[in-house]
Every structure is written in C-alpha cells, then in structure tokens.
Amino acid sequence: MTANNEVLLHVxxxxxxxxxxxxxxxxxxxxxxxVDGVSFDVKRGETLGLVGESGCGKSTTGRAIxxxxxxxxxxxxxxxxxxxxxxxxxxxxxxxxMQMIFQDPYASLNPRMTVGQLVGEPLMVHSVTTGEEIDxxxxxxxxxxxxxxxxATRYPHExxxxxxxxxxxxxxxxxxxxxxxxxxxxxxxxxxxxxxVVNLLEELQQQFGLTYLFIAHDLSMVRHISDxxxxxxxxxxxxxxxxxxxxxxxxxxxxxxxxxxxxxxDPVADAQRKRVILEGDVPSPANPPSGxxxxxxxxxxxxxxxxxxxxxxxxxxxxxVACHLAK
Amino acid sequence: xxxxxxxxQGLETTFKTPDGVVHAVNGVSFNLKEGETLGVVGESGCGKSVTMHSTxxxxxxxxxxxxxxxxxFNGRDLLTMSNDEIRGVxxxxISMIFQDPMTSLNPxxxxxxxxxxxxxxxxGMTRKQAEDRSTELLEMVGIPNARERLxxxxxxxxGGMRQRVMIAMxxxxxxxxxxxxxxxxxxxxxxxAQIVELVKRLRDELGMAIIWITHDLGIVAGLARRVMVxxxxxxxxxxxxxxxxxxxxxxxxxxxxxxxxxVDGLHQDKLFSIEGLPPVLYHKPNACPFAPRCRWAMERCxxxxxxxxxxxxxxxxxxxxxxxxxxxRPRS
Lengths: 327, 332
Ligand SMILES: Nc1ncnc2c1ncn2[C@@H]1O[C@H](COP(=O)(O)OP(=O)(O)OP(=O)(O)O)[C@@H](O)[C@H]1O
Ligand SMILES: Nc1ncnc2c1ncn2[C@@H]1O[C@H](COP(=O)(O)OP(=O)(O)OP(=O)(O)O)[C@@H](O)[C@H]1O
Ligand code: SF4
Ligand code: SF4
Ligand SMILES: [Mg+2]
Ligand SMILES: [Mg+2]
Hints:
The structure holds two protein chains of two kinds. Chain A is an alpha/beta fold. Chain A has helices spanning 58-65, 88-95, 115-125, 131-144, 161-173, 191-208, 219-225, 243-248, 253-261, 267-271, 304-307, and strands at residues 7-22, 27-43, 47-51, 73-78, 81-82, 98-101, 179-183, 211-216, 228-233, 236-242, 313-316, 319-321. In chain A, strands 6-7-8-3-9-10-12-11 form an eight-stranded mixed sheet, with helices on both faces. In chain A, strands 2-1-4-5 form a four-stranded antiparallel sheet. In chain A, helix 3 (115-125) crosses helix 4 (131-144) and helix 5 packs parallel to helix 6 (191-208). The two termini of chain A are 29 Å apart. Chain B has helices spanning 48-55, 83-89, 101-104, 111-123, 127-140, 146-149, 159-171, 189-206, 217-223, 241-246, 251-258; strands at residues 4-17, 20-33, 37-41, 64-73, 76-77, 94-97, 177-181, 209-214, 226-231, 234-240, 309-311, 314-319, 323-324, 329-330. In chain B, the strands form three sheets. An eight-stranded mixed sheet of chain B has the order 6-7-8-3-9-10-12-11, with helices on both faces. At the A-B interface, helix 6, helix 7, helix 8, helix 9 and helix 10 of A face helix 7, helix 8, helix 9, helix 10 and helix 11 of B. The site of one magnesium ion (MG) has 4 residues of chain A, from helix 1.
C-alpha cells in the first residue's frame, strides 16, 4: 500500500456499448450502455477499489481496460501507451504486464488441465522459458500462493474454492505482471476463506509492488483493501476519493445510501446508524434515465437532475463527485 | 420448555453418498419462542438448511435420513405426525423461504397463480377472494401496481421483486413461524436493506417468529434477538445477540468475527484468518470438529467432543468448547 503518484493506468472517457439485435434480420435496435464515459487514474503500487451494484459495469470496465473487449470509445493508457489503438503483436507483449483474476473460481479454470498446466500455460503461450524451467517456475508460484507444489499434478475439481482461487492467483502471477485486475476474487468464497485470499493478495502486493484494480460489491472488504475507491452506478462513476475520505465523508447521495445499507457485524453500532433505504431497482442500462442516472432513486433529486448529466467534478483535492447538488 | 413455540431436540440427519455417509446434522437442539427472531449463522455446508429442512420433513429420502430427534411444534412432534398433518403445518403455520428464489418460483406459472395456490389449498378461499388477498399481499411487500403485476411471470420481475414475492407467498396464510433461508444473499446491498426493513416491519405488524439463516454476521446483528452459530453439523455457540458480538466465546466465532472487515472503519491492518477448511463429516467425530483449525486446541479436544454449556458470565450464552477463550485455560 505504498502508492506513489506516478500514474500507471489512465482511463479517459471509456465507453463500452453492447449492441442489441432483434428480429429475423437481426437489426440493431439499441445498445446496452454497460460503460458510458468513465475516467480515472490508477497509480503505481496502489489498490483502487471499484464498487457498485450488480450490472453497473464493473467487470465490463475491467475487460475493456485489458482489451478483452474492443472499447466503443475512449482511451486506455498504460505507462503512456494507448492500448485501444495498439496493434496485435505489441498488445500481446503488453498483456504480459496486465492480468486478471476472475470472480468464479469454479468456472474460470479449465477442468481438463492439471494445476501445473494451468499455472504454466501463460509461460508456454508467451514462450518465455523451456520445459524444465517451467516446472521450476510452477513450483515457485504454487509456493508463493501457499499451495503444496505436489498439487501440480492434480485437477481443479480436487480443490476447494479458496484453493482454486489461489491457483487463479498463481496463474495471474506467472508472467511477473505489474498490474492485476481482481474481479470479485472472493465473493464466491466462505467468510473464513475470504480473509485467507485477501491476506495473500496483500502480501503479494507488498512483495512485488503490484498495482491492483479491485472490483467488488462488498464495501467493507473494499474499505479494508483499497487506497482509493471509485463508486459506479449504471455505467458511470459517481464518486471517487481516497479511502478514508470516501467512507467518512461521502458526498454523493448514492454513496451515502450504499454505505448506510451495509450491515455492521455489531448489534450496538448497527442500531445507532441512520439508514437511507433506496426505493425501487436499478434501471436497465439499455435505457438509462436522462440527466443524472441516479435520479429515479435519488432522495434529493431536483428537476435539473432530469435535464442535464452532472459533471464529474473535483470538489476537494482528489475527491471527485458527479452530482449537481454536492458541495 | 412450555413457552417455546418450536422445540427441537437431538436432531440428527445423514446422507448416503458414493463417498460414504455424510453426517450433516449431529444432535442439534434449539427452541424458538413466540414472536422471537433467531439467527442461524455458519459457513457453507455446516448444516443450516438441512436442520430446517429436517424439522419440516423436507429431506429427500433416500439419500437423506433423519436418524434421531424430535421437533415439537405447539406441543406436537413434527417428525412423527402423519404426512397429511405435516402438509397442513407446512406453508400454513410454518412457512419457509428457500435459498434460491429462481428455483422456488415456477417459471411457467404467473405470479398470481403461484400466490393464489396456497390460499385455495390451505384456507379454502374462492378464486376471487384469493385474487384479492394476493393483491393485498403484493402491496404489503411493496410491489407497485400489484393487481396488474399478478399476471406477470417470474422472469418479468427483478431479483429483489422475486424475493418480495417469495416473502408474500410465505406470509400468505399468516404463519406463526417464518423460516427464511439466506433470503438476501443473492441481492445487492441496497435491495438487501429494503428486504430486511420489510421483514422487520412485517414481523412487528404480524407478530410472527422468524428463523433467519445466513452466513452474514452483519445481517443477523441488526435483525435477530438470539443467534446460534453452526459448524460441522453442530451448534457450537448460542447466545442473545448483543452478548455474542460483545463476548464471542468459541474459537470459531472469534475467528469469524475477526475475519470481517467493517464498513464503519474499525480498520484492521491484517484480517484474522482461520486456516484450513470446514469439514465434511463421514463419521460422527469423537473429537471437537473444529480442532484441526483451532489455535487453542489441547489434548482433550482430540479425544472428546465438547457439549454446549453455559458460559460463567451469562446463563443464556452457551458454548461448546473445552477452553475458556478469555483466559486460555481449560474450563473447569
Ligand atoms: N458481452 C455482453 N453482451 C451484452 N451485454 C453485456 C455483456 N457483458 C455485460 N453486459 C451487460 O452490461 C451491463 C454491465 O455488466 P457487467 O458484467 O460489467 O456488470 P458488473 O458491474 O460486473 O456486475 P456484477 O456485480 O453482477 O458482476 C449489464 O447490464 C450486463 O448485462
Ligand atoms: N441431498 C444431499 N445429498 C448429500 N449430501 C447432502 C445433501 N444435502 C445436503 N448434504 C450435505 O449436508 C451438509 C449440510 O448441508 P446444508 O445444505 O445444510 O448446508 P448449509 O449450512 O445450508 O450451507 P449453505 O450455506 O451452502 O447453504 C453438507 O455437507 C452437504 O453436502
Ligand atoms: S444529480 Fe440530482 S439526481 Fe443525481 S445524485 Fe445529485 S441530486 Fe441526486
Ligand atoms: S474444544 Fe478445543 S479444539 Fe474445539 S474449539 Fe475449543 S479449544 Fe478449539
Ligand atoms: Mg462483474
Ligand atoms: Mg443452505
């Protein structure tokens, strides 16, 4: 958690729309506006938390950054290079530095490959080493994530969720990346196992100076692990600030409601809290509300909110908010 | 215990599997008083659902078998009454919200049909009465345009709305006990908060008792009066809610609470982690089931499985552990 101020990743007005086709001729009738103009920086060595409710576009943002999707518009600069316009081969080289850990430790590992093959695969694909060296490296990687190297010959189904997630982490580390997108790496795990995986991620970060984009919907865990936090709603970032600033002094009505909805495992503290219960559901990203996207659920919306989309303003140093009324 | 509405004693349930007999519930006893909310917490596979399914005789058999126990409801044993009688209790006097709303709603029947069915079956209402009552129920759980929306099918409802329908359905016959099995786990926090508020309001209005199953120690803190913690098919700690969080006594409960970061910023530099994995029990253990993961384990723990006993400071707070975790010394 020793972030310096060097910007490793600069995301500028990133847009990712998925076309919707209908009818026999599969005409495009609209688009899911999964990510709709998102800008932020990630500094070298830090953990930026990205939170928001299901379907708000967190995973899509992560995938568009890694160019697993071709962004509809916008720039993604990694160490100053715009990935969106990068050709195939240089992008392939670039990809070694950026990895992703996925949400579902059950679905994200090929069941027909052994643990050794899974962890060694990135090394083969990028042909960085020879057979014998690969075996050595795999052993090293398994030790790093605290798995017994003898497990290399076993298959994923022989492991628990937490162990599979470690396999995913080992695989992501194989090519010595600088930057890892952790897409809900612990949501599928049991409580006692979540702490094991989070502690591991933190240790590895310290050891290798890794930079994380940590995607999650658990605001308590995000508070624990992040240096700065961005809050997303319907494809847009609503608020971004340093961790303590965001949790102690949220300025956006959505962030305020979201934080107040998180239960606290302490009956006394929980009873003393003021709750903001939001009405209704998140609208569809295929047809988001005009103006401010949060206005259909916002407890303090005014007519202006339907007319114009609030700018993402820096209200205090490093604290950005997209709300007409926030001061 | 005369004032308890539900009194379960010595419940044991096993499953025959290709790998051997799984001892899912191993002598669980608890009671529920009228109007009380009991939280049941524990990690995946610890036996929360099987305990409640056994109580309502919803265990598929084979492979499942209720090997021992009694479950008195209003003084009568649910485990020995006739099939007709238990069907009369289920869904009417004791109703259950199941873990996954998508599998428990029938996708090809309208929401209205599904709401009306128990009313026709248990309460002998006419179609018209059932429709009016269903509209009322949907309104009660906060679905706008309720009468219109009766015609819709489950896929036309959002996840949060489906969960509200499940609650409406469970409450339709005004049960004395509502058993809610992880009813908010799949939902976003803002929707989860809506549902919890709704359940609190309905509980206060209708005065029913609730058993709320979850792995989220945060939710029970704000909802339950009493909490029991399960591990490996046993209740390992049971206490009034405030005392459980203020003085967790079992090493597992202490570990669980220590592994949770808090949104209100009691910031820990490093999360406490319980190493190892929860057990799957292929035989009833003659050791403490938590021993392989326990920092406090001593010789006796490997030889004898401790029973639930009151802690010295509070007779209502019970724990199954040989060690007094406050002092680190054996309990006398
Ligand atoms: N490949 C795709 N094609 C069409 N729509 C998509 C695709 N991927 C995502 N979407 C839609 O884009 C929106 C954002 O999805 P995304 O997976 O990014 O959300 P998320 O914030 O990661 O949610 P969760 O917390 O549930 O993982 C959703 O409405 C989703 O249905
Ligand atoms: N039909 C079944 N056949 C075989 N084993 C079963 C069956 N149902 C449950 N079990 C086993 O019984 C044990 C207890 O399961 P149970 O469903 O009660 O767990 P739970 O505490 O509800 O977990 P979760 O939080 O995942 O819902 C588990 O080991 C499970 O694998
Ligand atoms: S811009 Fe308006 S609707 Fe949006 S959050 Fe601010 S007050 Fe609410
Ligand atoms: S009985 Fe022994 S092993 Fe079991 S929880 Fe207590 S101290 Fe740990
Ligand atoms: Mg996602
Ligand atoms: Mg269950």
